[in-house]
Design goal:
Strand order of the largest sheet: 2-3-4-1-7-8-9
Radius of gyration: 33 Å
Helix content: 25-40%
Number of strands: 35
Number of helices: 22
Length: 828
């Protein structure tokens, strides 16, 4: 009789076949005297969709919700049905008496096999091959400690719960909220989920915090001092400072100008400062080993890798190259019996890593250490480390990521880096000025990253005179003015961190403690969640930042109005992740978990059905309606006049209308051209919004006589240049010697005449609307004549959506750039 081994991917089945020995390939599986080794290709089976349960459920209607199956049925995925059929036949073979699950060692791998096994109707006994490393040795070790099928029941239950919970919340929530938000409009879907929606909520709330941020002016006193050994700077510290809930308040910030100027005047009366200082040795411990989320965060910060790109690269290094251990882990520790393994791995490192490895081995630094070897911090998986195999034929991404993991492995075994930290107080007429110096004296683990220099951060030493307290001369004391800055936008690194530590956003201490190890999602799913939000057009990337779209803001506004906290709160979702962990540990039943999910599903549907937008909830704005000269009222989805004759929706053309744009539209009858509109296919376009005679908002598009780049239209219709106004000479060298081309004013842009009527000799073009601001003809004349405009106000930043002022400046190559006015600083 034979054992059928089912891996998750074909590449893994090949590695297992090599490990069991003398297995011949037969189509898409391998076979020898004792084993048949085959594989899935990820998920081959899925849960029934609503229309599979009842054809009437194909149509999205509120009255048919909630959809809560008494039993979840399975079906093969259509596109991989042939693969499923092949595996089903192998399971049914008479000479197969045992099945081994060799799918990835985790919740999702367990689910892939479980659904496949059940959908095939197989009843044969099951064992589990739990592989942490894809080296031949790692596979053989896994064979020597196979787990029984019964041991996997808790993980299997958790996997089913995750899948069924996502189905219930996703199907019912998406249908209920889409129906209430968009009605019967086709093509509009508001997808929600128990992890994706709280994640999206964090991004939207951060964006709104940035937009509503009001800068506060503060002043700092900076002193320049001199000793015989050199010069240094110090910053005044408020002696009465105490930490408070005001996160912007710091000991070196003065919030009152008069107080700051008074302190400056008093300090200027002195010519010397009394100097005292304290020194201490400060160790910096080596970083811990990588888990997946930490690896994704650092790869995003260092190389700009998306979370998905890092996961795919790490998976290749594990699966294809066999040089990393299993990457989908949330552990940063190794088993306590892994000391010998680490000695062998350390000895295998080559190239530029070998020098550091030799230092570790020679010093005997690999020994029991609870920061590295700790069974209590290892669940099903341990930290990501090299396997000891030699890297071969790696691409650029793989090389960079392997080097990151290998250096972290090396650094973890090095001693701490040691810094000498000096804190100096220079007292000027009882006013303390603080200076800090930090000097690296023992590089320790920083050697692995090339940090061996000392002396950086050094401040000149004090050499006291006999019996006299040390003093420094005062070269200058000045007052600088600055403003507080809004919090930064999320990027993938910071969003991954926020998802991981979502418990910090929870007020309930017990739940926050429970979420320390869970947060939103799991290390293996967080990258997928971010990509899903981008794919659904809830988020968009701007360089490394993640921005919420109008669709995202509309969804969060609606969920807030409906009061569906279960979908927006990190606390609720983190609690589900915590409960899934308890199921895996065998301390919570599957039924108890699913009962909570069913209750949550019913609540989402009920609140969606019962929601009615009340006129009492409308808020007055300070903008008067042209229809009744009364304040326009802001509702959940629109701005409306009190007489009901004017309605302007907050989201138009998949673009969120800003308040200043609404003001211009209402007061001037039009606004634009505005950029950032998106078609149903996701293509951006530019348009002007106008109010027609019936006070309806209509689009006005650029005329088709010119293409968007100022050139001829697609039909090559000629432009009557004689009808266009000249604003200056083209700054680019596009004319014949001794001549100059003209810049002409078209309806949408200022363009060089050599770009019109099919001529492509020049690409000089400036849109008449830049960052939401109209550029007057007079300013373009100044730009072309003098190389610079006046200070122009009310540009709107694409990054922060805040208004700013700047000059437009002509560059030598004919390009345009911003020149910002100097900061408002005062120096005595």
């Amino acid at each position: 009789m034979k054992t059928l081994i089912i891996a998750e991917k074909p590449s893994v089945s090949r590695d297992i076949a090599a490990a069991v020995g003398k297995a011949k390939q037969n189509g898409d599986y391998f076979e020898n005297d004792g084993y048949i080794i085959s594989s899935a290709i990820g998920h081959l089976v899925e849960l029934f969709m609503p229309e599979d349960i009842d054809k009437k459920l194909k149509f999205w209607r509120l009255e048919s919700l909630p959809i809560i199956p008494t039993k979840f049925s399975l079906k093969p995925i259509e596109r991989t049905k042939a693969k499923f059929t092949g595996l089903k036949k192998l399971m049914a073979r008479r000479d197969v008496d045992r099945i081994v699950n060799a799918c990835d060692a985790g919740r999702e791998g367990e689910l892939i096999f479980t659904y496949l096994y059940e959908a095939a109707g197989c009843k044969k006994p099951v064992e589990r091959l739990w592989m942490q490393s894809m080296t031949q040795r790692g596979i053989r070790d896994a064979f020597s400690r196979q787990r029984s099928g019964d041991e996997m029941f808790p993980l299997r239950d958790a996997a089913r719960c995750r899948s069924e919970a996502d189905w219930l919340i996703g199907i019912n929530g998406t249908r209920a909220i889409t129906t209430r938000m968009y009605g019967s409009r086709r093509g509009q879907v508001a997808t929600v989920g128990r992890v994706q929606t709280p994640t999206l909520t964090m991004v939207v709330e951060r964006e709104r915090l940035i937009r509503s941020f009001e800068p506060r002016t503060f002043w700092r006193l900076v002193g320049k001092f001199a000793l015989n050994e050199g010069r240094y700077e110090g910053v005044y510290q408020r002696p009465e400072f105490k930490k408070s809930s005001d996160t912007a308040d710091r000991p070196d910030r003065l919030w009152d100008r008069e107080t700051a100027e008074s302190l400056l005047a008093d300090a200027k009366r002195a010519d010397r400062a009394e100097v005292s200082e304290k020194k201490k040795r400060s160790p910096q411990l080596p970083p811990r080993l990588y888990d997946l989320t930490t690896l994704q965060r650092e790869a995003n910060n260092r190389f700009g890798f998306s979370a998905r790109r890092t996961l795919q690269t790490a998976q290749n290094l594990y699966e294809k190259h066999k040089i990393l251990t299993y990457p989908r882990t949330d552990s940063r520790a190794l088993p306590q019996d892994y000391v010998e393994v680490c000695l062998k791995v350390m000895g295998s490192l080559e190239g530029s890593l070998a020098e550091h490895a030799g230092r570790v081995l020679k010093a005997g630094w690999i020994k029991p250490n609870r920061r590295i070897f700790n069974d209590a911090q290892v669940s099903d998986h341990f930290a990501i480390i090299p396997t000891g195999q030699t890297p071969k034929s790696l691409n650029g991404d793989e090389t960079r990521l392997f080097d990151m993991v290998a250096r972290r492995f090396l650094a973890a075994f090095h001693p701490a880096a040691q810094f000498d930290v000096t804190t100096r107080i220079s007292k000027v007429r009882e006013h303390p000025f603080k200076t800090e110096g930090r000097v690296l004296v023992e590089p320790g683990w920083l050697t692995v990253y090339g940090r061996t220099q000392s002396g950086q951060g050094q401040i000149p030493a004090i050499i006291p005179a006999d019996g006299a307290p040390p003093t420094a001369s005062i070269d200058d004391i000045s007052l600088t003015e600055d403003t507080t800055k809004p919090p930064p936008r999320y990027n993938e690194a910071t969003l991954l961190s926020a998802m991981e530590h979502a418990g910090r956003l929870v007020d309930d201490e017990e739940l926050a403690e429970a979420m320390k190890e869970n947060g939103l999602g799991t290390p293996a799913t967080r990258a997928q969640i971010i990509e899903h939000l981008i794919g659904e057009r809830y988020l968009e990337r701007e360089k490394r930042d993640l921005l919420p779209t109008a669709k995202a803001e509309n969804l969060i506004d609606f969920l807030s109005a409906v009061k569906i906290e279960a979908l927006t709160s990190p606390a609720m979702t983190g609690d589900w992740e915590h409960r899934l962990k308890l199921i895996e540990n065998g301390s919570l039943t599957r039924e108890s978990f699913m009962e909570g999910i069913r209750e949550m599903t019913n609540q989402i549907v009920l609140r969606s059905k019962e929601f009615k937008e009340s006129a009492d909830e409308a808020k007055p704005t300070d903008i008067l309606s042209p229809t009744d000269q009364q304040p326009i009222m802001e509702t959940l989805r629109s701005y409306r006049s009190q007489d009901g004759r004017l309605t302007v929706y907050k989201s138009i053309g998949n673009r969120r209308l800003q308040e200043d744009e609404l003001r211009a539209l209402v007061q001037e009858g039009q606004v634009g051209p505005l950029e950032g509109f998106l078609s149903k296919l996701g293509k951006p376009y530019t348009a002007t919004l106008k109010l027609n005679e019936e006070h309806k908002v209509v689009f006005e598009f650029p005329t088709r006589s010119l293409s968007q780049d100022g050139g001829a239209n697609p039909d090559n219709a000629p432009v009557d240049i004689a009808q266009l106004t000249e604003v200056g000479k083209c700054p680019k060298s596009c004319a014949d010697p001794g001549e100059a081309s003209r810049v002409l004013e078209t309806e949408n842009a200022y363009v060089c005449e050599n770009s019109l009527n099919g001529r492509r000799k020049c690409n000089f073009r400036i849109s008449r609307t830049m960052l939401g601001r109209q550029l007057p003809r007079a300013q373009l004349v100044k730009l072309l004549q003098n190389g610079k405009t006046d200070l122009l106000e009310k540009f709107r930043s694409k990054r922060t959506h805040r208004l700013f002022s700047a000059h437009l400046v002509l560059k030598k190559d004919g390009g345009i750039e911003f020149e910002f006015p100097p900061r408002n600083t005062k120096k005595a």
